[in-house]
Write a structure and sequence with these properties.
Chain A has 181 residues and is an all-alpha fold. Chain A contains nine helices and no strands.
Chain lengths: 181, 181, 181
């Protein structure tokens, strides 16, 4: 059951980041292919770098559903992004949610792959921040790390909390919950 | 014989992208080492990311001829880039040619490595676009994806067409030809 | 004994680059987490890309001490960066030292992994330059390669000299010394 929870959190993080990527494409007035590329790169970017660094197979090369969902989410944003009044506030809020999710799932993936506590926490931070870095570079904006390092702080705190609790033997649902707080 | 065709297309794409990288170095008035680094990174960048993501050995680590040719092409551009009247138009044209070539050869490399249709199409797009992204980041320009996503659209169309035809059992030369159109 | 020398040079290069990353964080007035992230990414970035391209396990995933040292160095810089009068001159000088160190240790790591001369020289250049590229991208500055390609020239010269001497059978300490000159 907990595996299902983790998988669900991972999917949620990917969808949330895909939306933020598509929102940046919207701000830059790209066409629908720009939405799909930026949304997909943002959604899968963090987990991709984590897998490459851990020497694991990149998760979406075996499960194309990730690509399909990211593309579909981006297309939905393409047709609805003009509706909300304040896209930028939504983007910041979703970014924070995605960071919290990926800090936990990234650290857990590293722990399961046999990494130690410090490396696992670093992987949590990398998974949480890299998608946004790709998005900002491809979108021609200053990377978030420059102007919003408060988010990196949050990602680090979440990853460290989660890793510490897990290694201390805490039940995973407690750790996951604490990693968000 | 068809393998020879694919290899030739791959080399052609690498040379074309190396020229575009060297042309950006020329616009930035770099020295000859800047030409070599930007030309080589642009020429091999897309295929490098494709190989890393597929978990395959990076192609040029086993065949240094790729590095030598990229460097040689960049040096040639260094000594001739002042000759043409309109470097920017040449760059845009070569970029489009390189994208079409790499969209096809990237998708084919992924198919041969056992990837499914969607992943293969994504690899075609990644191979085709990433060299230019590296070039623009290292050259201090806005990434192409921002301002010229028409090219990403073309790369996606080429990769999807090629992958679809190949999986449908079309002879490869037909698929390769259609992937360019 | 020479292995100890190489390891010491590698550590020295990592620390030097971590300091330059933290100095950029200082110029951008980031908080302490920004220092740690930029310092760590700069310190381990070049070696990380080298390992990924060579298909080797990424060095710091097995030895978290690298992460800890980079973070500690960054924290020290956070508390002392306001002291020196000319941070920018220090940064340029350290950058040159780190480049020379990594050009040699990067080429040697590739040679030991079985790479040929040309690939080894390329890996020396990549190891030496990529940390600084990451630092400048994350810090929102123009990548060094654009404005300071004199450093890339130096890295290339160092890597080529070292590789050539090593393959010619020169004792390693001679090659290491010459690679710096």
């Amino acid at each position: 059951m907990l595996d299902t929870v983790t998988t669900a959190l991972d999917w949620l993080g990917i969808v949330v980041f895909a939306v933020t990527g598509a929102l940046v494409a919207s701000r830059k007035q790209m066409d629908v292919v720009g939405f799909v590329m930026l949304g997909t790169a943002t959604g899968i970017g963090g987990g991709t770098l984590r897998d490459v660094l851990m020497g694991a197979p990149v998760f979406w090369t075996r499960a194309p559903a990730y690509l399909v969902v990211c593309a579909a989410v981006s297309v939905v944003v393409f047709f609805t992004a003009h509706l909300p009044q304040s896209r930028h506030r939504i983007l910041l809020w979703l970014d924070a949610v995605g960071l919290a999710l990926f800090a936990v799932t990234g650290a857990e993936a590293a722990l399961r792959a046999g990494a130690g506590a410090i490396v696992a926490a670093a992987m949590g931070v990398i998974t949480a921040t890299f998608g946004g870095v790709i998005r900002d570079i491809l979108g021609g904006e200053s990377p978030v790390i420059l102007s919003r390092e408060i988010y990196a702080t949050a990602a680090l705190a979440g990853a460290v909390t989660f890793t510490g609790l897990t290694l201390a033997g805490a039940p995973r649902d407690v750790s996951v919950g604490a990693g968000f707080a």
